[in-house]
């Protein structure tokens, strides 16, 4: 977490006491545990007089190596049915999105960004689903295909296994060799093709390495 | 006045716990009258060109009413004489000012005689004004203040004439050199502190002055610059008033409660020119503790105009004070956070208690509430989704397999 776990717990407690006054933060062997009532606050200014749109009982496990390590989020009051169609994973955790893909987009990752982003969006999605029986912004396909969709969006390419794998390989190198083939598929060398992609890659090297790790688990090289 | 959101509600509460313009004007006229008395021809200290001015929360614009209506609030004044520590011992200055204040009290048929406190004289006003004045006798002390800053390595502060020229030497009955002449006098710089405080919110002060001027006050004030300080209220000042009230309601009778100067200093440090009271509360409450330094294992809330002075010096002697500060801060975060996370027109119990029930009820009663009409939960959800999508804040869920 960058600094000691105690300091992280103190900083997170301070921020949460104001933003989410009904949750508590505690230290565990594995990291930090955040538990209590999560207030789903509106972002739209015209709705701010409501204070909150809804509330959910939550348990959030932040691993010691957060944000490299993925946090686990649970809805604890049994309000959300444990079904894949409601984006609840087989272990009961909430699937708020694809962790490393989200991290790649928002670097540097902080706890506050996580709370305001994936956590807020997940519960707003559930709140909306209960009202309208559909997801407010659509959803990724389940499993492998959803992973391809999401990675392709982050990397700015087509959702093809080999295309994504090649990009992740290149972007996770400190600097790819000039005589390697360009990611655009032209068949030309990098040095005489899309050199600007390498000067300004869509994801950092660290993010590309994390993405590649999961990618290789889903799609064996 | 219509309250339509948390922001307008919080502003109304801050106004309700603050000192009214009438009260402020009454206090100003009282202290000006004392100033004129000390400077009158027959005054025994007129030759020292006495100058009376406010210090503390009145000067900073952060005065709050006491919780019980029977209690009175205090206004701190400096009475500065143009002399030096060869002209006066501390005891002589205290008596010279005190004697004139006694005459003033008699001439104005005040019920109570001025009371001789450790550093100041206290003047009780028993009429409907419900306040007392603490008058602090002082001498100019630019040289002593400069020397103090230089000795402690703060040469940049020592080199600022604007800062050092407002420094004063004050009396203290408990010091052994109280009757000695010449002697080392304790140094203070309330005007310097106020200048720092106002600098921290300079942009907001200008904006508030313009607002007061524009709000139909053109008839009263010739220009924006003529709007008096006590009429100007910025988000930082109101935030400090709310925090002080929260402190008073939770820890009023506790002698270890967080002192106002610590709340004020940390809040002003944390403030980042937020334009609204709710945004100011958010920033101040979540970051104010970052401005408590640790110096050799001692918690230090430095006086910004004299960094060697630790406003939290008592924390080392009484560790409970630090603990109470932390407890209070956590409660304040939760109480204000819970209010902002709920409907603006039904404050939760914790918040109501912390602002005092009578204040909250009075504000709700006296003002019309207007709830914007987005009717059903489903409509609210649709409006929120559309907003998030257009603001690029939407994200899609996934399932591992």
What features would you highlight for this structure?
heterodimer; A: 221 residues; alpha+beta; 4-stranded antiparallel beta sheet; 7 helices; 40% helix; B: 401 residues; Beta Polymerase, domain 2; 2 domains; 7-stranded mixed beta sheet; two-stranded parallel ribbon; 17 helices; 13 strands; 48% helix
Can you describe this structure in just a few lines?
The complex is a heterodimer of chains A (221) and B (401). With 221 residues, chain A is of the alpha+beta class. In chain A, 40% of the residues lie in helices and 13% in strands.
Write the layout of secondary structure elements.
The complex is a heterodimer of chains A (221) and B (401).
Chain A: H1 5-19, E1 23-27, E2 31-40, E3 54-63, E4 72-75, H2 99-106, H3 111-132, H4 143-155, H5 161-171, H6 195-199, H7 205-218
Antiparallel strand pairs in A: 1-2, 2-3, 3-4
Helix pairs in contact in A: 2-7, 4-5, 5-7
Chain B: E1 2-3, H1 6-17, H2 21-38, E2 51-55, H3 56-60, E3 73-80, H4 90-107, E4 115-116, E5 121-124, E6 131-140, H5 142-151, H6 155-158, H7 161-164, E7 168-170, E8 187-188, H8 190-200, H9 202-214, H10 235-251, H11 260-270, H12 277-287, E9 293-295, E10 298-300, E11 302-303, E12 306-310, H13 314-317, H14 319-340, H15 349-355, H16 357-366, E13 368-369, H17 377-390
Parallel strand pairs in B: 1-13, 3-6
Antiparallel strand pairs in B: 2-3, 4-5, 5-6, 6-7, 7-8, 9-10, 11-12
Helix pairs in contact in B: 1-10, 1-16, 10-11, 10-12, 11-12, 12-14, 15-16
